[in-house]
Specification:
200 residues, mainly beta, Tumour Suppressor Smad4, 3 helices, 13 strands
């Protein structure tokens, strides 16, 4: 299961015929909720993490998934995330922020520069609610380069599961798509949860 030090990761080859290809993480993770992999991924944060290119070559990767559960005013739910889960207030400059990363990137942000999507763990970043707006602005400016950590107001850990409760409703985003306002969130890593093909 997962990666081993000193060993290559990813296998060049010929992708199966009839493979379902996706251009976004959320489209792919929705598919994986009800259908087994393999899948093809041309775009999105996980594809970028895997080094996807634009040539006709193909590389096969085994990747972990995130099983995410939540509870909010409208009830509870469960879904699968391929790249990341993010919880924050609708106005992100205040309140707690929790980022659970299976990919290195979220859009233009290099959130988890040391993360790996097949090591059986997610990279978890927690922004202290007391972190000032000025400090958040400074950290936000450093996100594209991945230099926002270490920071005394940003907790960073690598783990296989976790859960949080929030005093006020926060917005949950899965693979870049808003899902629901939540008061409680948990996640669990599903090791080797999917097989993903990407162009080289």
């Amino acid at each position: 299961m997962g990666i081993e030090r000193g060993k290559d990761w990813g296998t060049p080859g010929t992708a199966p015929g009839g493979l379902a290809w996706f251009d976004s993480d959320r489209m792919a993770s929705r598919f994986l909720e009800s259908s087994p992999s393999p899948i093809g991924l041309r775009g999105g944060d996980l594809a970028r993490t895997l080094g996807a290119g634009t040539s006709d070559g193909r590389v096969r990767f085994e990747v972990d998934l995130l099983r995410v559960r939540w509870r909010g005013v409208g009830g509870s739910g469960e879904t699968v995330a391929l790249a990341h889960a993010l919880v924050r207030r609708s106005r992100g400059w205040r309140g707690p922020i929790v980022a659970v990363m299976n990919s290195q990137y979220r859009g233009d942000w290099d959130v988890a520069p040391r993360g790996h999507p097949n090591d059986g763990r997610a990279e978890v970043f927690i922004v202290d609610e007391a972190m000032s707006v000025r400090q958040r602005w400074q950290a936000w400016r450093r996100l594209p380069l991945g230099t926002h950590i270490p920071h005394p107001s940003i907790g960073a850990s690598s783990r296989g599961s976790g859960e949080w409760s929030f005093d006020r409703l926060c917005d949950l985003w899965i693979d870049g798509e808003h899902v629901a306002p939540v008061e409680w969130l948990s996640f669990e890593v599903v090791p080797d949860g999917a097989v993903v093909w990407v162009p080289t």
